User: Which sequence fits this backbone?
């Protein structure tokens, strides 16, 4: 099957899963088809599906990521010993694990084509990631606590694992508790990575998007917590601070230089 044929197969399959989708018209333009497929992935509740669907989905998503371009950790230069700063799409990074800024439901973003990192990671990992996260929530019988971390396979992403953490949601001002919880996110992710023998970990800018943590203070906490952890534990884990926005690249660059 060509990439176009795989995309149409996946769209038609997902539409057929729900009778309420019967009125959906499949557009002819490629980018509009991609938007529709992503939206269908985003709103699909976790449940089992056919092996044929998974096989075609996996092949499709891996090829899409290959076309975007994969960045290997080995091709990056550290900004400090064992610490990297990289601006780019975290879903294209090949390393031990990437961090997902999750919400307390930990099932990914259900808003079609939303721009958050949770949406992107779940989209390009495939539907298996939402199922894996649902198993965690079912087993613990409550929503994920802020400042903790859970690890799953990365499925169709080029990294090996995804570590999910729920950052604090900031109100009208930052509190000491917000700062403590954000630091806990970074430390919990590092501890979870090392418990699972993960040698490299890419952090996104936790809580700075939809959760409204100010970028500069969040970066200060991130860098301080990572450095303290590595020194305290004599940890050899390689840490990548992944940023997408230019403002965050400048903030981290200043802090790390």
Assistant:
């Amino acid at each position: 099957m060509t990439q176009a044929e795989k995309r149409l197969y996946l769209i038609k399959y997902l539409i057929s899963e729900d009778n309420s989708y019967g009125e959906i018209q499949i557009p002819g333009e490629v980018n509009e088809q991609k938007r529709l497929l992503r939206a269908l992935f985003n709103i699909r509740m976790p449940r089992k599906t056919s092996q044929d669907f998974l096989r075609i989905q996996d092949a499709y998503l891996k090829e899409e990521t290959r076309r975007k371009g994969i960045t290997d950790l080995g091709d990056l230069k550290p900004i400090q010993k064992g610490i990297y700063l990289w601006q780019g799409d975290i879903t294209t990074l090949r390393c031990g694990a990437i961090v997902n800024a999750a919400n307390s439901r930990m099932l990914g973003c259900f808003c079609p084509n939303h721009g958050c990192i949770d949406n992107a990671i779940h989209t390009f990992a495939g539907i298996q990631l939402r199922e894996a996260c649902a198993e965690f929530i079912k087993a613990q019988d409550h929503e994920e606590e802020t400042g903790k971390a859970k690890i799953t396979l990365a499925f169709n992403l080029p990294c090996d694992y995804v570590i999910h953490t729920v950052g604090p949601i900031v109100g009208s001002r930052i509190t000491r508790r917000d700062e403590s919880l954000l630091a806990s996110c970074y430390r919990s992710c590092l501890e979870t990575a090392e418990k699972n023998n993960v040698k490299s970990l890419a952090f996104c800018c936790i809580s700075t998007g939809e959760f409204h943590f100010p970028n500069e203070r969040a970066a200060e906490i991130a860098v301080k917590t990572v450095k303290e952890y590595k020194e305290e534990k004599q940890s050899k884990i390689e840490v990548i601070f992944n940023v997408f926005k230019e403002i965050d690249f400048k903030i981290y660059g200043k802090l790390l230089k």
Q: What stands out?
A: The chain has a mean pLDDT of 96.
